[in-house]
Amino acid sequence: MAGGADTALEPAPREEGPRGAGALLGGLTGAGGRGPLLVTVALVVAAALALTVAYGLHDVAQRGVNGLVSGSYFALGAVGLTLVYGTLRLVNFAHGDLLTFGAYMAFLANVTWGVPVVVATLFAVVVTAALGVLSERVMWRPMRGRGAGLLQLMLMTLGLAFVIRYGIQMVWGTVPRRLDVDVTDSVSFLGLRIGSTELVVVLVGFAVLLAVGAMLRGTSLGRQMRALSDDMALAEVTGIDTDRVIVATWVFAAGLAGLAGVLYTAAIGTMTPNLGFFLLLSLFAAVILGGIGNAFGALAGGLLLGLAQEWSTLLVDPRWKVAVGFAILIVVLIVRPQGLFGRAERTL
Amino acid sequence: MYAGTRSRRMLAVGASAVVLGVAGCGSDDDGGGGGTGAATGTGPAAEAPADTSFDETIGVLLPLTGDLSPFGAPGRKAADLALEQIRDAMRAGGVDTNVSLASADTESSPQSAVQAARQLIAGGASCLAGPWASSETLAVAESVATRQRTPIVSPSSTDSAITDLDDDGFVWRTAPSDNLQSRALADTVERELGGTDFTISLAARNDAYGQGFIEKFKAAWEEKGGRTTGPVLYDPEQPSYNSEAAEIVQGRPDAYVIIDFFETYGKMGASLVRTGAFDASRLFTADGLASDRIPDTIPARALIGARGTRPGTPESGAVVEQFARIYRAAGGAPRQTFDAQNFDATMLCYLAALAAGSADGADVAEQLQAVSAPPGRTFTFMDLADGIRMIAAGEEVDFDGVTGPIDFDDNGDPTAATYEVYRYGDDGVLRVERQFEARAEG
């Protein structure tokens, strides 16, 4: 105890040291460095150029825009997943269903109660965040207190996923629902078209992800979250109110999941109780591609997955685009097992 | 309620059916194949008067729960009505077969459908009306019908894969194959466009229904001398279809044929409209996107003006009107697509058994084609008593159903079916513009 106190009283180095928590929940200047970013950007640009030569600028640019759109879906959905894993080491299979839950909360407010869609979105974010906190209080904190293993926790998230999905199905059935937005409206610039709601998703997606990244690096809450991520017991000893930080993590993660669910639904037009479940695998892919526990990594991973899928439709039949996206995931992981921006030494 | 008072007597019949089934499987392995009737010595369309005093239990496989549950109760009612008609006609025709129904819920799932079929057969059923979903029919065909040598007559499975099943003559359906519908759609497009000198952009959801349908359509259209691009096949679970939509509208085709269900088309339709080049009044589609009105999850501009085909029952005609009358008079469940097909399926299960003079599954299967198709005197359920009398006297007959002439082909598919051509008006309401009868070639 006494030995540990020395280091515990000096949390300062952790904030900037490359070996510290910053690498896991932080930005690009962590252990990953700028190298992988540059290499990735160079490869994407090279791919774009090669495709342009073969298929012309317009097609490549338009599919690039399409890739940006689906990439934003993945990235926005993935950031909460990566936060929860980074801070709590919880592989949350229920995350996709938090997206679904958010979408249906927005449906409840927007369509059933007739509230404007922006207000309904805020409502959905708040209620989904509350659900996240509730799950922490009822399930995860007691389980952590008893020292539950990784596998038990994972299976519990899987159970929670089913409970949420079928709970939604019980209330709203399996018929597709929609929000009161016009999904057919589109804007065009330089001859490229993007749906208005899709544009909103891209802009909000980027803004939110950059803000989360900045929050993790720049604010005291972010530093505390990173400290937890590095070593929860140690963080507790240093006087961090871990309970408060964990609750904050859930508020962010679940709230963002709710937001992602609403924006996703608003952009694609329909929701069913399976919405988040079908998306979950792509979210995991974005997280792993970017480096587990890394907020910017989730953004980069999501975009890369989206671009790879949409550009691949120029080369192969569109029905194979999912396979192409995941093939690229496999190749990246062979080259860099820790993901693009992850740390080399992993505990998992 | 279907087990009725005959269940105990049925046990004996059930037991012998199972024994026969096992024996059939054994002998089938060493070639042969064609000898289903030989074992019991009943040839098709026997000349001599058939023995009519046997017991028959017709099994009815219904999707009472699950995705297809809206079809369950109307389907059950249609089967009930068929039994009622049969009993009345037997009395009038002086035939004393002991017919009863036994029903089971398939839960709209292939696994449960197999369970339900086994249960019905164990309970003595020797001909099954159902199951409904194509996936259920494929499962029951392989693991029950062929092995236990019990014919199934599906009222609603339209998947073209069912045509090519190696089923030994045990799988039938009163619903027309998508094969037929894809050709009917090609005829419709030709008529609506006023020729075939057009390029049609093809797309479909990437599953058995979409892919099977669109490929058959492509072949039919090109056979007519038309041109096509695609098909663009898309995974139904993807979040966005912008790139797929771009490919579909590329090159400004003269028309589109897209085969999909509403759940996916909500997303695909939005993507199509966003391309700015899509015009729904040049879209042709099929039964998968037919509904009384455009659901509010579909962007209206993705469907308004679109035309399509769907299987129907002839709108007019004494038989159809009489069916509608008795259906209404019986009270209970309202009309639903494929109810009349189930009525016909139940009816055929009995007529084939009567022609065979036996309720044995293999004998019934042997006669299904003969009683449904020419040659022979034509009759409908309205002169069922006459039909039954003719069959009992060993005459050749051709039963015409409520849904059309049926006329089973060698694959167990109806060779003719009625289709409706519908169009979505500006108010989003589906209107049937005309009907026509499509016949399989050859």
Query: Helical proportion of chain A?
Result: over 70%
How do the helices and strands follow one another from N- to C-terminus of chain B? Answer: HEHEHEHEEHEHEHEHEEHHHEHEEE
Low-confidence region ranges of chain B: 1-47
In oligomeric terms, what are we looking at?
A: heterodimer
Mean pLDDT of chain A: 84
Largest sheet of chain B: 7 strands, mixed
Give the beta-strand count of chain B: 14
Could you please describe the fold and organization of this structure?
The complex is a heterodimer of chains A (348) and B (442). Chain A has a domain of 236 residues. Chain A contains 14 helices and two strands. Chain A has a two-stranded antiparallel ribbon with strand order 1-2. In chain A, strand 1 and strand 2 form a beta hairpin. Chain B has 442 residues and is an alpha/beta fold. Chain B is built from twelve helices and 14 strands. In chain B, the strands form three sheets. Chain B has a seven-stranded mixed sheet, sandwiched between helices. In chain B, strands 2-1-3-4-5 form a five-stranded parallel sheet, sandwiched between helices. Chain B has a two-stranded parallel sheet with strand order 11-12. In chain B, helix 5 crosses helix 6 and helix 7 packs across helix 8. The chains are: A mainly alpha (348), B alpha/beta (442). The interface between A and B is medium-sized, with 37 and 32 residues.
Secondary-structure map:
The complex is a heterodimer of chains A (348) and B (442).
Chain A lengths: L1 H7 L12 H5 L9 H21 L1 H32 L6 H18 L4 H29 L4 H23 L13 E4 L2 E4 H23 L1 H11 L1 H6 L4 H27 L6 H16 L4 H21 L5 H15 L13
Antiparallel strand pairs in A: 1-2
Chain B lengths: L6 H23 L25 E8 L9 H22 L4 E8 L4 H13 L2 E5 L4 H12 L6 E3 L16 E3 L4 H16 L5 E7 L2 H16 L3 E8 L7 H8 L5 E5 L2 H13 L8 E3 L21 E5 L6 H12 L9 H18 L4 H12 L4 E3 L4 H9 L4 E3 L16 E9 L5 E10 L3
Parallel strand pairs in B: 1-2, 1-3, 3-4, 4-5, 6-7, 6-8, 8-9, 9-10, 11-12
Antiparallel strand pairs in B: 10-13, 13-14
Helix pairs in contact in B: 2-10, 2-12, 3-4, 5-6, 7-8, 10-11
